[in-house]
Structure formats: C-alpha cells, structure tokens
Amino acid sequence: MSEKLLELAPVVPVVVLDDAGAAVPLARALVDGGLPVIEVTLRTPAAAEAVRRIAAEVPDAVVGTGTVRTPADVRLSVDAGARFLVSPGATPRLLDAMEDSGLDLLPGTSTISEMLAVAERGLTAMKFFPAEAAGGRPFLSAVAGPLPDLRFCPTGGITADSAPGYLALPNVACVGGSWLTPPDLVAAGDWDRIRSLAAAAAALG
User: Fold this and answer.
1) Cβ proximity of 8 and 1 under 8 Å
2) Which one of 3, 39, 114, 120 is the catalytic residue?
3) pLDDT digits (tens, 9 = 90+) for 59-91
4) Where does the chain show beta strands of DSSP type E?
5) Which of 36, 40, 90, 126 is 20 to 30 Å from 74 by CA-CA measure?
C-alpha cells in the first residue's frame, strides 16, 4: 500500500458485514466521522457486495478488502471495485497475485523474516498481524532499529485505549481496528454512535 494511503487517517476500520444492506450507511458514518479508509473483510458471503455498494455509492470512501488469502480473493476484490488489498500473511503466490492486480496492497507480516521478504519486493508498507498476540508495541519498537525504512499498520487486538501507544511509534503510520463497528451497533443501525466512535479515532491523528 502506498504510504500516502496509509496516512489518510490514523485508524482504518476493520469491518465484518453479514448484511450488505448496512454497508452504505455504515461507510457514510465512518467517512463523516473522519475515517475515509475502510477495510471490509472477506469473512462473510456479503462482503463482496458490501464493497461493491460502498464503491458505487460513497465516493468519499476509500474501500478495500481484508482477509485476502488467495488469488481468487484478489480477483473477487478487483471485480467488486476494491481500491486496496489487505492480507493476513504474505506467501509468494499471494504476493504475486496482489501485485498483479494493480491495486494498493498491505501484505500481512508477523516476523522479521516475513518483513524482509515483503521488503525485497520493494514494498515498504505492510500490516503487522496479529499485533497484540505477535508481540505488540514492544516488538514494533524493536523492529524500528534494524528496519527503519518500513512502515506498519498494526491490526489485531488493538483497542481505543491501546491505539495511541502504537501511533506514537515512528514506524507506525496507522492502526487497524474493529472497535469502531461493534456488531451490536451495526445490527441496530446506530450510525450516530458509530460516527462518534469514528470521530474519536480520527482525533488520535
């Protein structure tokens, strides 16, 4: 993923949608709150349609797909109108497909060897996942010494309380979080509350 895209907002909402009908009002609430970059995970049957609707109806949103695991997921994302791809890991075959798509990409890494393998392709922006389980803020702080040119979007277990600590690191451009779109608020259509959560997250920048 280009570093310019990483710097659009301090927090990237990681969204799981069971109902594509919620996609547009949810995206509008996030954008209105100041978070234009939205990752819709490919974990539900509704995901591709949700991306399609956001891309078509919320022009201020920069929507991409997460949990991209296979070349087929890449094709699905491209067809749905995604503007970027986020993967949980980074195998050579998956990286090839992601690069061939022409979209911005944020490959997932959790070890220094994986980070080096991604960097060998000329990619300096990557996801750190699962952030909390893989060493969290202390790990990324230690990585900054030997790998000063890499920028990260840590995702996985990050909360509104822990996000500022990550964002204070020099090698963290933004964080990914699911706390912005709690399933109960999405199910209830409480877009005002989600807009408030987004505004609080946007203020972290």
Assistant:
1) no
2) 39
3) 999 999 999 999 999 999 999 999 999 999 999
4) 11-15, 37-41, 62-66, 84-86, 104-106, 108-109, 125-128, 151-154, 175-177
5) 36
Q: How many CA atoms lie within 13 A of 55 on its CB side?
A: 19
Q: Decide if 127 is catalytic.
A: yes
Over the Cα atoms of the chain, what is R_g? Answer: 16
Cα atoms found within 13 Å of the Cα of residue 64, Cβ hemisphere only: 28
Whether 132 is catalytic? no
Contact 26, 181 (CB under 8 A): yes
Distance separating alpha carbons of residues 91 and 89, to the nearest angstrom: 7
Residue 40's alpha-carbon distances to 54, 126, 148, 205, in angstroms, are 10, 17, 29, 22
**Residue 29's closest CA among 52, 61, 53?**
61
Quote the distance between the C-alpha of residue 89 and its chain's center: 13
Selected catalytic residue, list 3, 114, 127, 132: 127
Determine the 3-state secondary structure of 59 from DSSP.
coil
The reported pTM is 0.96
Question: Rounded distance, CA 136 to CA 129, Å?
Answer: 9
Backbone angles phi, psi at 140, to 5 degrees: -65, -35
CB distance 134 to 35 below 8 Å: no
**What are 99-140's pLDDT values in tens digits?**
999 999 999 999 999 999 999 999 999 999 999 999 999 999
